[in-house]
Structures are given as C-alpha cells and as structure tokens.
Design a protein that fits this description.
Helix content: 25-40%
Strand order of the largest sheet: 2-1-3
Structural class: mainly alpha
Largest sheet: 3 strands, antiparallel
Oligomer: single chain
Shape: flat
Strand content: 5-15%
Number of helices: 5
Order of helices and strands: HEHEHHEH
Distance between the termini: 95 Å
Number of strands: 3
Radius of gyration: 26 Å
C-alpha cells in the first residue's frame, strides 16, 4: 500500500526538461552556418593578436561586426573566442575570412625578453646615483 501523496493548492507548472545534448538551446544556428564551407585556414594560434583595420561594412555578419568592434585594441584569438562564446576552430575560420577581406590584421604576440639588458640597468643605476 502506497502512502497518499500531497497535492498543492496551486499547481506549479513543471520546468521544461533539460536536454542532454550539448549546445542545444544555447545557439540555435549550427556552427557551419557561421563559418560557411570549410576551406584553408590561416596559421593562427591562441596567442596571435588580432587588430581591426576597418569599420564593419554593411555586408558583415553579426560575428564579424562584433570582432571588428572588439578588436579596435589588440586582442588574442583566445580572448575573441571567449568573448564571442564560440569554439576556437570556428573563430579561426571566421578570422581567416576577415584576413582575406583585409578587415583585420594578425600580429605575432609581443614576447618580452627573459632577462633585462645589463647596460640599461647600469645606466639607470648610474643615473640614480648622480641624484
């Protein structure tokens, strides 16, 4: 014998069931709609800096316009991917198209020297001693 179940006075509607498929409900478009046919990709890595060269044209997709607005100051490909909420591979294809159209430039990351220049440190030291 099962115990009686309580019923609420005002029934609360059940929340929509959570789908177990990844990406379903987050982005209604499939990623291949954003990227188009898969062609050659530019040799971009996560730390390559992207800088916008032009204003968004009227024919630009929403993703391209967002990249051009974000990249007025240099941003790495990893940051662009994170801000757009798109996978790295999709962003790489998107940036390859934009590089071909000369809307953005790709720059190598700025690498700092491991050790400071000794002559510069000595010059600073001598200058401080003269004060």
């Amino acid at each position: 014998m099962t115990p009686p179940q309580r019923r609420r006075r005002d029934p609360v509607p059940e929340p929509p069931s959570q789908s177990s498929k990844e990406g379903e409900g987050k982005n209604p478009e499939r990623l291949y709609i954003i990227t188009g046919p898969d062609g050659e990709r530019a040799p971009l890595d996560l730390v390559t800096l992207i800088v916008a060269c032009a204003e968004p044209p009227s024919s630009a997709t929403p993703e391209q316009s967002a990249v051009l607005r974000m990249c007025r100051a240099p941003l790495s490909v990893a940051e662009v991917s994170a801000y757009l909420g798109l996978p790295f591979s999709v962003v790489t294809v998107l940036l390859t198209e934009m590089l071909a159209a000369e809307l953005v430039q790709a720059r190598a990351p700025i690498v700092r020297q491991h050790l400071p220049d000794r002559s510069l440190l000595e010059a600073v030291m001598h200058g401080l001693q003269r004060l």
